Amino acid sequence: MKIASWNVNSVRQRQAHVLDWLEREKPDLLGLQEIKCEDAAFPAEAFRAAGYDCVVVGQKSYNGVAILSRLPFSVTARALPFLDGEALQARYVEIEAGGLTFGNLYLPNGNSGGSAGYEAKLAFMEALALHARALLEAGRDFVLAGDYNVCPTDEDCAPGALPPTDALVRPESRAAFRRLIWLGLTDALRALHPHGRYYTFWDYQAGAWPRDCGLRIDHALLSPRIAERLDSAQPDRDERGRAQPSDHVPLVITLDGP
After folding, report:
1. What distances in angstroms separate CA 234 from CA 2, 79, 88, 199, one per listed residue?
2. Are 28 and 38 contacting, i.e. CB atoms less than 8 angstroms apart?
3. Cβ proximity of 48 and 82 under 8 Å
4. Residue 115: CB partners within 8 Å, gap ≥ 6?
5. Angle formed at CA 94 by CA 92 and CA 156, multiple of 5 degrees
6. What pLDDT band is residue 88 in, cutting at 50, 70 and 90?
7. How far apart are CA 94 and CA 43, in angstroms?
8. Pairing, β 218-222 against β 186-187
9. CA distances from 237 to 12, 61, 168 (A)
10. pLDDT of 99-157, one tens digit each?
11. Phi, psi (5° rounding) for residue 150?
């Protein structure tokens, strides 16, 4: 089973890129973040023609998440449980498919809006931890994947890429990410590649891509039984070198079994 996550930074601008990638990689599930469109403007018919049904939680011009699936699925959430005041922030969608729960998330960056903006980031992470705990207590098998906007360790941030005050590397952000891991979840990429540069994002500015000045901020966290099935995890770096790319690349994991 192949599952992928990709912040496409506008699905309408990157529609051809996504269709090409689907044809080449053929994931069973693909979570998209930052689609930047309302539900009605999402190119669902183009993806259905490629063999993927869609569930979309959109928002005009900002945010927005969607899941594309080759498998039959049921929608289990269109917003993150345990979180208040996020009705206008399209940042979470969840389905059941292929014997697991797949939650696709776009976590707030936390660098805008002053202290309130950063508190919103931490509130989202708190709600995500509560939801993950509830899924674990219910005995559910799940993958929580998406743009977490957190570099968990110094190794996940190229030297000099961010100041220590940036919300993506602040101690509170990293502690909130560790809380998820301490629940018993597995960071898919680091489970197979404990060390090394495995970036998923390169800024458009300052020659970040040619200099390989990147960040690892897109993650897939796995519940225990799903972690036992983990076969591979890798960012698809080639996508960043295409013409007019997203600043993120797909993170792809494969699981043994159905």
Report:
1. 11, 27, 32, 10
2. no
3. no
4. none
5. 60
6. low
7. 19
8. antiparallel
9. 21, 26, 21
10. 999 999 999 999 999 999 999 999 999 999 999 999 999 999 999 999 999 999 999 99
11. -140, 130
Which segments of 79-119 are extended strands (E)? 92-97, 100-106
Query: Which residue is associated with the tokens 């600043």?
Result: 247
Between strands 73-77 and 53-57, the pairing is unpaired
Cα separations (Å) of 36 from 93, 149, 185, 198, 204?
15, 17, 29, 26, 18
Structural contact between residues 132 and 173, judged by C-beta atoms closer than 8 angstroms:
no
Q: Are strands 92-97 and 73-77 parallel, antiparallel or unpaired?
A: antiparallel
Residues 163-215: pLDDT tens digits? 999 999 999 999 999 999 999 999 999 999 999 999 999 999 999 999 999 99
